[in-house]
Amino acid sequence: MASIDIQSIRKSFGAFPVLHGVDLTIQDGEFIVLVGPSGCGKSTLLRMIAGLERISGGDLLIGGQRMNDVPPAQRGIAMVFQSYALYPHMTVRQNMEFALQIARMPKAEIDKAVENAARILQLTPYLDRLPKALSGGQRQRVAIGRAIVRDPKVFLFDEPLSNLDAALRVATRIEIAQLKEAMPDRTMIYVTHDQVEAMTLASRIVVLARKGIAQVGTPLELYERPVDEFVAQFIGSPAMNLLAGEIIATGAETVVRLDGGGTARSAVPTQTSDMGRKVNIGVRPEDLLAVSGDGLFSGEVQIVEALGEVTQLYVARPGGGAHIIAKLPGIHPDLRHKTVTFGADPAKVHLFADGRSLLYR
Amino acid sequence: MKSKPVLTILHRLAILAYVVFALFPLFWLLKVSVTPNDLLYSEGVRMWPSRTSFDHYAFVIAHSAFPTFFKNSLIVAGSTAVTVTILASLAGYALSRFNFKAKYWIVALMLITQMFPLVMLVAPIFKMLSPLGLTNSLTGLVIVYTAFNVPFATFLMQSFFDGIPKDLEEAAMIDGATQFVAFRQIILPLTLPGIAATLGFVFTAAWSELLFALMLISGNDSSTFPVGLLTFVSKFSVDFGQMMAAGVLALIPACLFFLLIQRYLVQGLTAGAVKG
Predict the structure, then answer these.
(1) Is A129 strand, coil or helix?
(2) Most buried pick, A297, A361, B119, B261, via CB within 10 A?
């Protein structure tokens, strides 16, 4: 059993609160990704689960047992650090053996565990090398190997790929996904600020913000049904565009007159009492379409970023303010300085009142 | 970037000039120590005497109290270096890794001890050691040297511990190591350069200390070598040849010591631990 129960966990550094009251239940075998802006406490939460940070209040249960005051080594967890944290004076083999030797495992078993992990991670030729003689990707694999040999119930990853270059990051990400596949009953908790890692690895994503949890859900739930403007803008890149307006028709389909002049239709249902309510509509850049005739808004394309598969357009916002970003498939070199009208499928138009999504109420 | 050959040459010349400047007194020491007495004043200033002899060395080793001074210095400097390094690495680790109440005041106090000129402290220290029977004893010297060297050595060790990423200890703790095991098996091996530097620094400081050795010790039996050198100065003459020979001999242990520890002084031992 490796379910993890986090019950109103609080953390403050001195008088400064970092997390107040986080509740989260993680099932056996889940792959949970913690995301959030810098300083939101995601690493702190992970370190509290690991036992490296004291828990200021609330309870932490792993496999049903209260772990608040249990030392890290006895929690049945292993952790992979962003900095790898390999012991530099020990060979790859010694690095992986260290925990098992402290646990006084018989030599034959240690050798078997290390060789098995080395085979999985393709580290066998490097077992007798020192960490300084390895590349970044190999070092990170050793760090993962050090976690595997201990056969923990819970794996903790603290931004494990952020020190690798782009190509290596993709390769290692796939290795981690395969690792999870090979160990379906192991629970993994993974901290990252990389959207792609979160979307591709997670069985559920936990978005942390403002010292607590903003939303928990599968990657597509967060993408398609964000609970508030923060999650809507945090998940997806570039961020979702928000446009202010006022509800002018309610029912199964809502109509919003935008401050910039256009009209938006949204598939989010509203009640008669919502009539005249000030709202923000949210549209993802990839959901904006160039249309002829009526649309959400028209604006001059000021910056064009051609990425090959898509083109990102930075469009002047009617009435001024930050650019509205649109992502059109294909290559559109001729749109710069043109005025374009954009529309969107009503199913893709989100509605937020006072920052909260009108889908949830 | 490719450096220009002229700059390289200038750079090398500057280093050469510095090395010559730094080593010339040592060369002169060696030169005088092998110059026979009759040539010392008769040949004028020469870079090397026309005839060399090792008579001064033979005399210093066989007929003076120098071997005793030498042995005393070895005991005092060796014990001081080991004691200080042990205390300083424990204290430095604590200052680097733990937060405790009086930390600020302890550091401040340690800095204050470094502010006074040593001369001011000679009399009170003599007053304290005398009733304890620690004057004229090597133990007394070791205690005094240890007390004076611990603060600086602690700061030195602290900076080395600060350079070791905290992640390594946390990884060791997750691996099941207690804080002490993590210190002994992970941190200490990585601090060897720091320990070597501290050992070397304290050893040379204690080896060449004159003021306290002169004030606290009387009599040849427990004199250290810097005090012993003064015995070559008599009322009417200075025996430069023997003095220099003793000086050259005194350099040997310090050189051996640094030869022994120099491989630990080489940096780069922590390379590969964390992404740098």
Answers:
(1) coil
(2) A297
Q: Any idea what the Cα angle at residue B217 is, between residues B216 and B218, rounded to 5°?
A: 130
Closest by CA to A191, choosing from A34, A29, A6, is: A34
In chain A, ranges of CATH 3.40.50.300 domains: 4-233
User: What's the gap in Å between the CA of A73 and the closest CA on chain B?
Assistant: 4
User: For B169-205, how does the pLDDT look when each residue is reduced to its tens digit (9 = 90+)?
Assistant: 899 999 988 888 888 889 888 888 888 888 888 998 8
pLDDT digits (tens, 9 = 90+) for B234-274: 777 778 888 888 889 888 888 887 787 777 766 544 444 45
Taking each continuous run of H as one helix and of E as one strand, the counts in chain B are: 14, 0
Q: Tell me, what's the ipTM?
A: 0.81
CATH architecture observed for domain A234-357: Beta Barrel (2.40)
Closest-CA residue of A relative to B272 is A132
Ranges for all domains in chain A classified under CATH 2.40.50.140? 234-357
- Looking at domain A4-233, its CATH class is alpha beta
The residues on B that touch A, with CB distances below 8 Å, are 165, 167-168, 170-177, 181, 185-186, 189-190, 269-275
Please provide the distance, in angstroms rounded to a whole number, between the alpha carbons at the two ends of chain B.
22
Residue of B166, B175, B263 to mutate, interface with A, max A Cβ within 10 Å: B175
List Cα–Cα distances, B136 to A4, B1, B218, in angstroms. 68, 61, 6
Residue ranges of domains in chain B, CATH in brackets: 1-53 (no CATH), 64-265 (1.10.3720.10)
> Could you tell me which residues come within 8 angstroms of residue B164 by beta carbon, excluding any fewer than 6 positions away?
B187, B190, B191, B270, B273
187-206 of A, contacting B, C-beta below 8 A: none
Q: Give the C-alpha separation, B220 to B237, whole Å.
A: 20
Cβ contacts (< 8 Å) between A105 and chain B: which residues?
A: none
